[in-house]
Design a protein that fits this description.
Elements (H helix, E strand, L loop, with lengths): L7 H14 L2 H12 L3 E2 H8 L3 H13 L3 E6 L2 E6 L4 H13 L1
Antiparallel strand pairs: 1-3, 2-3
Helix pairs in contact: 3-4
Length: about 100
């Protein structure tokens, strides 16, 4: 049996991203962005029925951890998932929450 080499830096990065995602509003944001290519800040806070400041706070956390990317188009900022592989994590969370 071979010994598994663990890359501590990769594990710490993954744990950091999971901590950033570990909030109901952030999971909801990721889930929404899973269904569409991109959403503006306004579209996100209106769909979630939360204040703009709260949405911006959660979006900044997700962006700073490399989960989301943003692009300015005129006065609007659009957010999208950096990687579609996050879909698998969200799908797993949805399945786990049904049990």
């Amino acid at each position: 049996m071979s010994k598994v080499d663990l890359d501590i830096a990769k594990l710490e990065n993954a744990a950091s991203k999971l901590r950033a995602m570990a909030h109901p509003m952030r999971i909801a944001i990721i889930d929404m962005l899973n269904d569409v290519n991109k959403l503006s800040v306004t579209e996100i806070y209106e769909r979630l029925q939360i204040e703009q400041a709260a949405a911006s706070h959660h979006l900044n956390i997700l962006k700073n951890k490399g989960i989301l990317v943003s692009k300015r188009d005129g006065k609007k900022i659009y957010y999208a998932l950096k990687s579609k592989t996050l879909n698998q994590i969200i799908d797993c969370l949805n399945i786990c929450s049904e049990e």
